[in-house]
Task: structure prediction
Amino acid sequence: MTTQLTVSYEVARQRARQLLLSFPGEWQSILPSSEDESWRKVDLSSVPWDALSNLLASYQSPTVNYRLEGPHTVPPAEEKERLLDALATYSELEERLMQPEEARNEPAAFLRRNVFTLINLAFSNPVVLVAEQGDRLTIRHLPSDSLFLPCTVIRVPGGVEATVVEEFPEDTSALRSGNTIIVVEEGARLRYTQVRHDGESAHFHHVRFLVERDAYVEAGLLQSGGSVGKTFYQASMLGTGAEFHGKALYSGREGQVFHLEMGVQHLADHSVSSLLYKTVMTDHSHTVFLGNLEIPAGVRKVNSHQLNHNLILSKRARAESRPWLVIRAEDVACEHGATVGDLDEDALFFLQSRGLPEEEARRLMIQGFFEEVLGQMPLTDDEKEDFRLRSF
Result:
């Protein structure tokens, strides 16, 4: 690993526990602020902070909270400790929030931290794995009826081609706060997909990729359901020739709300990234997308673009799209775009004129809208169909 790790996991874990158990004490210093662009649109008023603090005071980390299917190894103690230090480094409390106009030159500052990552750091029982060449590795997290704190740390060794799917079921927990960190070493190739079905509890997830020299990552996110919450899906490009392609789908109905922040930090020359986020919104559901790109001074030959396409099927549904580009470098190519609209009436009429009932024609068009992303996921046909059935 080329990443510089400076924070001890055990020290950080104890510090996080002490801080969290001091409620209300120092909590104000770690609660998301409306002045922080990442959290400005997230309504946290329904998060039961008092009840949550009481739950944390008596909470015991689960001993088994996942099932594994597929090729992997459990790292030896020394390597596991090093990987857990990575988890701590990107979950610890930073001294000062960076301002939006600052292009940060350290991944620890880019991968934002908050009370939810601290809760996960303090009380989760991490699964630490080394991915192997071969068939798909599936990580199935098991639900909880109190706190759901899944935590995964994965290393993809240099030169390995790995496929990983991480699944999160719907549950009835008071809070779900997940944390996944994946280190993709030099020359490795990773296809990763996270599938989540969030219930009505508050849900917060952080997925971080550390992409080293000449490594290649295709990262997917399938999300349905949820009330209050936010997901961070972020990558730091640490080595020359690193490449990251992130794709996400969300379907919202009734009063569901989903906030997604996808971001890429380019710290190396000749690195490439793309982000694509698609949503289908109906009833009075609401989605907010923040596309984050940071390139500090001195980095050259970066190619990056992001797109957000929203299909709005109800007059009361809403979709917001906000690019957040902080570029301090020259000799880079960056672009972004977003669309919001209903189904194409001409295309719908054409399908109906060929004998398809309106409902079937609309379903076919929605399925086609999804397939650009869903079709590239390393999922079985049954898994893809399950997501379609949950979505429309």
